[in-house]
Amino acid sequence: MSALIDDAERILRECFASFAQYPGATLIDDALASGVITNIPITFFSGIAATRIENEADIDRVAARFRERNAPFRWWLTPSTRPHDLETHLLARG
User: Fold this and answer.
1) What pTM value is reported for the model?
2) What is the rounded distance in angstroms from the CA atom of residue 53 to the CA atom of residue 7?
3) CB 3 within 8 A of CB 24
4) What is the pLDDT of residues 17-67, one digit of tens each?
5) Residue 21 and residue 90: Cα distance in Å, rounded?
6) Which of 34, 5, 6, 32 is nearest to 20 (CA)?
7) What is the pLDDT of residue 75?
8) Is the Cβ–Cβ distance between 12 and 33 less than 8 Å?
9) What does the CA dihedral 70, 47, 38, 93 come to, rounded to 10 degrees?
10) Which of 34, 44, 47, 46 is CA-nearest to residue 81?
11) Which of 16, 23, 56, 81 could make a disulfide contact with 49, Cβ separation 3.0–4.6 Å?
C-alpha cells in the first residue's frame, strides 16, 4: 500500500480517536475494528475508521455496539478494509 494511503488511514483513525475525549465516549480499538462511539447524535462524531473483520457475525457485533447506545454512526471503507467486500455486507444490513 502506498505511503499516502497509509497516512490517510492513520489520520482517519487518529481523528476518531480524538473524539474519545468527549464525555461518555468509548474508544474502539480491538481485533475487529478501530473507531469511537460518542453521545453526540451526529454521525461525524461516531463511527468505524478501520475494520479487520473475518465473518458476518463480526459485522453484527461491531454494529451492535452503536445500536446498544442508540448512537448514529458511519463506517468508513478504505483500501485496507477487511473484508474487501464489506460494502456489500453493510448494504445488505441496511
Assistant:
1) 0.90
2) 21
3) no
4) 999 999 999 999 999 999 999 999 999 999 999 999 989 999 999 999 999
5) 28
6) 34
7) 97
8) no
9) 0
10) 34
11) 16
